[in-house]
Amino acid sequence: MEQLDLTPWRCPEPLIRLKLWLRQARPGQSLHLILGDAGSRQDIPAYLQRLGHSVRPLEESAARLSLLLVVGSRPS
């Protein structure tokens, strides 16, 4: 599984980098996504769900959020 650590960047850079990753992603591909920016931690999971991807929180703290993203599938 790939990992995309977006903690060094502030909004909108994490979303831009995630969109670039999604362009090459295949349906069913999974990604461990790590977010640090407060705005990104709130906005990116909602954005991914609107697109029809499965998003599951793995770990959350005051400083970061780790997610499991599965491309092109919704949670069952």
Automatic annotation (TrEMBL):
Signal peptide: none
Domain UPF0033, first and last residues per copy: 3-62
InterPro entries: TusA-like, TusA-like_sf
Cited Gene3D superfamilies: TusA-like domain (3.30.110.40)
Recorded family membership: Belongs to the sulfur carrier protein TusA family.
Protein's recorded name: Sulfurtransferase TusA family protein
